[in-house]
# Entry
Amino acid sequence: MGDADLLRHAGLRVTAARLAIMRTVRAGDHLDVDAVCRGVRERVGQVSLQAVYDSLHAMHRAGLLRKIEPMGSPARYEARVGDNHHHLVCRRCGTVTDVDCVTGVAPCLDPVESAGYLVDEADITFWGVCPSCQR
# Structure
């Protein structure tokens, strides 16, 4: 399914800016809003930062994009959704890297006490120092 079909299926209006956001996020590597905005402007020209924020929020709510919020850094977006993967974050440079789930079954971790919740997802972030920063 193409990006336009994904947007329509999610009940979102198809616009040049939204298509550019999808392509920018897909081509990027856990981009923050400023990087997404720059990529969109390269593809379609002038677009407001607020329009990018609004579209990213709508696409995240619709399940088309995943929002990652590593502690101490800006929110980032990725197009890899619908699987059970987690992230490695470098404490020095902030690089974010995908890592497959340790056990492969969603959620891969169950809380000791669920307090009555039906748990369907675990958001795991592994912190460390990336190979580049180790040098």
